[in-house]
Write a sequence for this structure.
């Protein structure tokens, strides 16, 4: 009969085999963590390989399945990073279309009008400069063509 220890979370208790408990030493479990990171996955896979029964090793199919999951996790992580960068670049490109345009901005109920004199991106958020003040591009409610460089709206 083997003895078990338990790990108590905020809402549940799970019994762990002493071998598993020893293998998990050094891995910090956060109370609010609901998913595994890439590093967690690698640690668990390494521990699993180190502690497997040599007489009953992990099957090739099971190991390949876990490696496929790891590969999918890595690709998803890279895809998320790429999509975030693409989204920021598209937002900045869209904001550039406002340069020289006469715009109306709704800034928390205050209406501001003027010609967009600059475009910036900071922390992934695009902003436009109107009358010397920066506003996020999503606050623009109306855009009009300007005539020349005078900054007056076309009729």
């Amino acid at each position: 009969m083997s003895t078990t220890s338990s790990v108590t979370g905020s809402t549940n208790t799970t019994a762990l085999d002493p071998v598993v408990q020893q293998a998990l030493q050094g891995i910090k479990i956060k109370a609010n963590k609901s998913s595994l990171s890439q590093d967690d996955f690698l640690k668990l896979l390494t521990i699993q390989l180190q502690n497997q029964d040599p007489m009953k090793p992990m099957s090739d199919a099971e190991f390949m399945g876990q490696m496929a999951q790891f590969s999918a996790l890595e690709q998803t992580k890279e895809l998320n990073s790429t999509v975030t960068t693409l989204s920021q670049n598209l937002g900045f490109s869209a904001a550039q279309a406002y340069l020289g345009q006469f715009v109306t901005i709704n800034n928390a109920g205050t209406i501001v009008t003027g010609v967009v004199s600059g475009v910036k991106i900071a922390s992934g958020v695009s902003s436009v400069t109107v009358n010397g003040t920066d506003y996020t591009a999503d606050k623009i409610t109306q855009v009009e063509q300007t005539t020349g460089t005078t900054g007056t709206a076309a009729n």
Observations:
- Residues 1-13 have pLDDT under 50 and may be disordered.
- The CA atoms of residues 62 and 68 lie 10 Å apart.
- The chain has three helices and seven strands.
